[in-house]
Design brief:
The protein is mainly alpha-helical. The protein is about 60% helix and about 5% strand. It has two domains: about 250 residues, Rossmann fold (3-Layer(aba) Sandwich), CATH 3.40.50; about 350 residues, no CATH class. Strands 4-3-2-1-5-6-7 form a seven-stranded mixed sheet, sandwiched between helices.
């Protein structure tokens, strides 16, 4: 195994950011659409051509544009055909299993045609069969993520509706569940996109799963929407906030191509940075012997092993994680019923090695930064104490030697601070730790098709947002799994991937919180003891001085012991102050509190997963599972934000 390693070759060679679009719009039967179908198709073609042109003019290398669509007739299918013709990827979050989706969207009006379509046979009605054939033709060229968890329930409601078409209760029950599932698929689409293209007349916005509802949901989740009015398809506008839906469009306004380019650029480019920058980071197989003071302080004051035992930590190699700590999750992913081998391969070859690589680098940089600051405090204390050590040593004539050592110690502080600043330990640690933490729970996200919406990724002060950009695209590169998300698939993912991860992270944070709180408490006590000893030393000197003045003891005792008491009077406060400085800098108590909060959140998620898995089978739905994974993702991001708020302004600096 090499002593250092840059970004793993499979990741460096295959990872590419790409623009992700979503599309929603009226069906072919909508009067506003059917009256302008040809113009809408032409407008979509021109828009896609312009998007290709913008992408081609941006710096760096990208993968093909990926279009997400539910592929119902009308806008969705037209956009899908145009995307495939351009060589774009087409990803389809289906509201139902493929067969049921095809049957529902072909709109059969008889049980016989419904049964035929569900069985994969042609429908007797030519119009129905033509719709079904069009759906089959385009979905065959797409990556389909089928939300098939409630297919049996939907099929039963549909049969009841077709058997009694005049029964309004049966129609409402079927339509309500179908709308909910379409809205859920629309949410999945939005989560995976940078920009939603919508063909909508603006009339109905409250029908779950409808175009207006999808537009409103996208804006709520922070995804901009390029809105095309079907009657004026050449004069589209871009919305960025839900409130803009209430602002009337200006029919004379020209399309805002500058804003379109800005959105695309922001989605796929980090100004002044490229993935090639990561080649500068070197992965090491073990921690550095030079930067172990912070962890030594944790060991001495926090317990959990011999105080002076070896602190050398071996980092898991990127190529070893699949057979090491990641073996169970890889096996679980491979054994999920009907799972996608391509996603398992991406996890094995790219995502997990990238996590191990970034985690090892972040850990080593953390040691350098935190230990560097602790060393500064120690050197500062030693400089003060050595500077006056000549007094109790009775070596006034050699004061210059002590001064020289003091100068060396002070020089060491300056040199270490300069090195930390020049090598950017603080910023690099922050960046790599964020990458690692975003990827730590990647299997839970990727295997169940869940993603953090683009507009909900954290914004980092100072503009150093490349870790969020990099992690988002590393996850997006895998894309939606090509699976039918049945209840068995969802149960397997929750039981064997999500729950073990949540449980292990909860235990980790509980242990970490206890350890850090112990370190804080013990450092506090030692610092207090140092100040108490300083008081004792000063009082002892004054007592000797007073006793001598009163003739109770020889006056010379106070004079003889004065240098020693002076040393103690300076050394103990200095040591106490620097221990307090280390405690303040490391913020053990607040970090412990952050871990305690994270553990509580994870405990709540763990309990919810347990309840879902042990409850009624019909309660185990994709929507419920996705909510839990979103809660996990939110807990991770909030923990990162809290951690950054503590250490964000604590750059390696001179001890004050």
């Amino acid at each position: 195994m090499p002593k250092t390693a840059s970004l793993p070759a499979p990741i460096r060679n295959s990872w590419l950011p790409h623009l992700a679009l979503g599309v929603t719009g009226h069906r072919a039967t909508n009067p506003a659409y059917s009256a302008h179908a040809a113009a809408i198709a032409a407008a979509l073609e021109a828009l896609f051509a312009r998007i290709d042109e913008i992408c081609a003019g941006l710096p760096g290398t990208r993968g093909p544009v990926r279009l997400h669509s539910l592929l119902v007739d009308g806008t969705d299918q037209v956009a899908g055909e145009r995307a495939l013709a351009r060589g774009w990827d087409l990803a389809v979050p289906l509201p139902f299993g493929a067969a049921l989706n095809c049957a529902i969207n072909a709109h059969p009006d008889t049980l016989a045609d419904m049964e035929a379509l569900l069985a994969g046979r042609p429908a007797a009605n030519p119009a129905v069969e033509a719709k079904a054939a069009a759906i089959r033709a385009i979905t065959a060229r797409a990556r389909m993520f089928e939300l098939a968890d409630r297919d049996a329930e939907i099929e039963a409601l549909w049969r009841a509706h077709l058997a009694a078409p005049q029964d309004p209760a049966a129609a409402r029950a079927f339509d309500a569940l179908v709308s909910d599932k379409v809205a859920l698929a629309g949410r999945v689409m939005i989560e995976h996109t940078d920009l939603v293209v919508a063909v909508w007349d603006g009339k109905v916005a409250n029908l779950p799963g409808g175009t207006g509802h999808t537009v409103a949901e996208a804006l709520k989740l922070g995804a901009p929407v390029l809105l095309i009015h079907p009657a004026r398809p050449d004069t589209w506008r871009i919305l960025g906030r839900p409130e803009e839906l209430g602002v009337p469009a200006d029919p004379a306004a020209a399309p805002d191509f500058a804003r379109l380019e800005a959105i695309i650029r922001a989605a796929v480019v980090v100004e002044g940075w490229s993935p090639a920058e990561l080649d500068k980071e070197r992965w090491h197989p073990a921690s550095s012997r030079l930067f172990g003071l912070y962890r030594r302080i944790e060991r001495v004051f926090g317990g959990g092993g011999g105080a002076f035992a070896s602190l050398k930590t071996h980092y898991e190699a990127p190529e070893a994680i699949v057979t090491g700590s990641g073996a169970e999750v890889v096996a679980a992913a491979a054994e999920m019923p009907g799972g996608d081998p391509a996603v398992v391969r991406e996890l094995t070859e790219d995502v997990l090695p990238l996590f191990a690589w970034s985690d090892g680098i972040a850990s080593r940089l953390a040691d350098a930064y935190r230990s560097g600051m602790c060393v500064n405090f120690v050197l500062a204390a030693l400089a003060v104490m050595v500077g006056i050590l000549y007094l109790p040593a009775g070596m006034k004539e050699s004061k210059w030697g002590f001064a020289a050592i003091e100068l060396l110690l002070l020089g060491g502080i300056l040199a270490l601070t300069a090195a930390g600043s020049r090598l950017a330990w603080h910023g690099r640690w922050f960046a790599m730790r964020r990458v690692a933490e975003y990827l730590r729970h990647a299997p839970a996200l990727l295997l169940l098709g869940v993603a953090r919406p683009t507009g909900r990724w954290p914004r980092v002060s100072g503009g150093a947002e490349w870790p969020e950009h990099f992690a988002r695209h590393a996850l997006r590169d895998v894309g939606l799994p090509k699976v039918a998300a049945t209840r068995d698939y969802i149960r397997s993912g929750l039981e064997r991937v999500v729950l073990p991860h949540v449980s292990s992270q909860r235990r980790y944070h509980i242990g970490k919180a206890h350890k850090l709180e112990t370190v804080h408490h013990r450092l506090d006590k030692v610092a207090e003891a140092c100040f108490a000893l300083a008081v004792v030393s000063v009082m002892a000197y004054l007592t000797l001085k007073g006793a001598g003045a009163l003739g109770l003891i020889d006056k010379h005792w106070a004079g003889t012991l004065s240098p020693l008491f002076t040393f103690f009077g300076v050394a103990f406060p200095t040591l106490g102050a620097n221990l307090s400085g280390i405690r303040y800098f490391a913020d053990f108590e607040r970090f412990g509190a952050i871990s305690h909060v994270a553990a509580e959140k994870l405990r709540a998620i763990e309990e919810r997963i347990g309840l879902l898995l042990s409850g009624a089978p019909e309660a185990l739905t994709y929507a419920a599972a996705a909510d839990l994974i979103h809660a996990l993702d939110e807990a991770v991001v909030e923990e990162i934000a809290s951690w950054q708020s503590v250490f964000g302004a604590k750059h390696l600096a001179l001890p004050a």
